[in-house]
Write a structure and sequence with these properties.
Elements (H helix, E strand, L loop, with lengths): L32 E3 L10 E3 L22 H16 L17 H26 L22 E3 L18 E4 L2 E5 L6 H13 L12 E4 L2 E4 L9 H27 L5 E12 L4 E10 L12 H12 L16 E6 L2 H14 L3 E5 L1 E6 L8 E7 L7 E7 L10 H26 L1
Antiparallel strand pairs: 1-2, 3-4, 4-7, 5-6, 5-12, 8-9, 8-11, 9-10, 12-13, 13-14
């Protein structure tokens, strides 16, 4: 909500009888001026009004700058008048509608009202987005933290001793990029593992050691929040953490089973590739085509993997990162590149030699890693179909065909990708500030 300025204003000089109405507002792309307003934070930007001095069809005739014009004050005054009309701010004690007469107390009220209005807009948007999942959005009081290594983000809060009272997962937890729910070719699919491993190695995949060939369904996933009494001694803290983790896993497995039992096992074929990205990032991926071996009652489901992801997200609505673009697009990453052009070039080369491969999927996996350098291992196996019972693996186990160590070339590729992401992130932050 910090960058939400939902109203754009533009005043006209009198040209027709309707233009003399001070409430006559229009929007014109060639007559907008960006500037900062005092009622917002210094890093925020807003749109200021621009007086139309001459023909609206000839922007080049506009007098863009005048030494005697105080655009800052005019912009602040225009925003104040709009807020008065919308009823989100009130004038005090006969203060005149001019920039020079805006006292300090009114300016503080304007700033406070703007922040409250932004929160209200964000809250309304979240209500609309979560209505399909019957989420209860009571408040928007949590602050959103932006950092370069944002591996976790709090998603739930509450009493860890109380069971979930709603249909979806509601245990105190936070998102973590060290945990995922995904589809992986089973270890018995030797042909699929062999061809995918060869392709990823030939394309110098930076994630070759850390990730198995996979399709993320809920990523980042969740890990428990340890709300522990500070008066406990060391041994009691360890015991309490163990209890909380067990309660967390009990709740997670219950909801994973609720989703998995609604989808029957299905077949997957990999015969084509795609790319996405831009100037500073390129991703080469394989398009998993999924279908049921026997259509039966599942004929209505065009793609069982999409249906499965939807069932999982219904149980864990806070883990909606795979639907950032509005819909879920299954993809199995082959490798990462510096830009989209490099990814497309690699795709054309790989597609020319690729032989389609298929495998049967009867279970999903919860994978987790330790630290940024760790390898994702199987923490739980999630069978598909009725009677699904999740099996927890403690300690987590590795896939048989995963590399035992991170070779030097893999680490070099991973460090280069990490540096590219940092540079891209810093560039976006600079643009936001500007």
């Amino acid at each position: 909500s910090r960058n939400s300025i939902p109203h754009l204003l533009q005043y006209h000089t009198p040209q027709t009888s309707t233009d003399t109405d001070p409430h006559h507002l229009t929007v014109s792309l060639n007559n907008l001026l960006w500037m900062k307003l005092s009622l917002l934070k210094p890093s925020s930007t807003a749109l200021c009004c621009l007086y139309r001095h001459r023909s609206p069809l000839a922007p080049s005739n506009l007098r863009m700058t005048r030494p005697e014009k105080d655009w800052f004050s005019d912009g602040r005054e225009a925003a104040r008048q709009l807020k008065l009309e919308l009823g989100i701010s009130t004038a005090k004690g006969g203060i005149e509608a001019c920039p020079e007469s805006v006292d300090l107390s009114l300016e503080k009220d304007m700033r406070r009202s703007a922040m409250e209005f932004g929160r209200a807009v964000a809250r309304a948007l979240l209500d609309q987005m979560t209505a399909d999942n019957e989420l209860e959005v009571d408040t928007l009081s949590a602050s959103i933290a932006l950092s370069e290594n944002d591996d976790t983000a709090t998603t739930n809060s509450g009493d860890q001793n109380e069971p979930s009272k709603r249909g979806h997962f509601d245990f105190p937890s936070q998102k973590s990029h060290c945990v995922t729910i995904c589809m992986v070719p089973p270890s018995t699919a030797k042909s699929a593992w062999s061809r995918l491993t060869s392709a990823r190695k030939a394309c110098r995949d930076p994630g070759f050691y850390r990730w198995p060939p996979h399709v993320n369904l809920l990523y980042p996933f969740l890990e428990p929040i340890f709300n522990i009494d500070g008066s406990l001694d060391g041994t009691s803290v360890v015991t309490r953490k163990h209890e909380i983790r067990n309660q967390f896993m009990d709740e997670v497995t219950k909801h994973l089973s609720n989703a998995a039992k609604q989808v029957m096992p299905f077949d997957v074929s990999l015969d084509s590739f795609g790319c996405f990205g831009g100037k500073s990032r390129g991703v080469l991926w394989s398009n998993p085509k999924c279908h049921y071996s026997s259509m039966g009652n599942n004929a209505k489901d065009a793609d069982p993997l999409v249906h499965l992801q939807n069932m999982l997200e219904t149980q864990f609505p806070m883990c909606n990162d795979q639907r950032k673009q509005g819909s879920f697009t299954p993809h199995m990453t082959i490798s990462h590149y510096a830009n989209l052009s490099d990814a497309i070039e690699a795709k054309d080369k790989l597609q020319s030699t690729w032989e389609p491969v298929s495998f049967h999927v009867s279970e999903l996996y919860m994978l987790q890693r330790t630290g940024d350098d760790g390898q994702f291992k199987v923490a739980a196996t999630i069978p598909l179909g009725p009677g699904s019972i999740v099996k927890i693996h403690d300690p987590p186990m590795s896939f048989p065909d995963m590399p035992l160590v991170e070779e030097e070339w893999i680490r070099d590729e991973r460090m280069q990708m990490k540096d590219r992401r940092k540079r891209s992130f810093k560039g976006k932050r600079r643009k936001q500030v500007e």
